[in-house]
């Protein structure tokens, strides 16, 4: 990352009392996995307890707004079937490329997740990777998803972190997940999304 770009981390972030959801799409899975891992790493480093992190997946980025909205509305409900896999190391099965959606499959026997608490979510991180193709699909989905996620957070008062990469090609997306193919591996933006969730969740607790 260059010296002039990127956020200044807030040294005060304490996530020990926060409950956070990650909702991720399954398109472009290699990149998604790295981003989710980056977000989880920072959530845990900021003190968010494992049983206060819920991970859900949806087919593609277009499904993220509805998933976020329902998770915020129903955040007292017990959690995702794939949570143990993700918290245990993104155990989704083998991957042969970055440009296809995948249905999660269990490849090992993950340790059982601790029971989730039932407090409302303090923040939701929506993670998707949109890569421009030959048609207008990309533009429509980017526009709809970004506006919808903003509306959900403003309407509900629950921070929705915009973890959606809108890349013009594969390399742009890979570099923003720290997976760059050249000398420049880039930087994993999932880490900032994890920190942003903790900071915004803490702020909203204080602001009321
Ligand atoms: C259809 C589609 C396409 C072409 N590209 C992507 C993509 O790059 N990233 C992504 O997350 N999802 C993509 N999708 C799937 C849509 O988001 C959505 O899942 C389907 O249109 C079904 O509503």
Automatic annotation (TrEMBL):
The keyword Transcription regulation does not apply. Its EC number is 2.5.1.78. The keyword Transmembrane does not apply. InterPro entries: LS, LS/RS, LS/RS_sf. It is an enzyme of class 2 (transferase). Coiled coil: none annotated. Catalyzes the formation of 6,7-dimethyl-8-ribityllumazine by condensation of 5-amino-6-(D-ribitylamino)uracil with 3,4-dihydroxy-2-butanone 4-phosphate. This is the penultimate step in the biosynthesis of riboflavin. This is 6,7-dimethyl-8-ribityllumazine synthase.
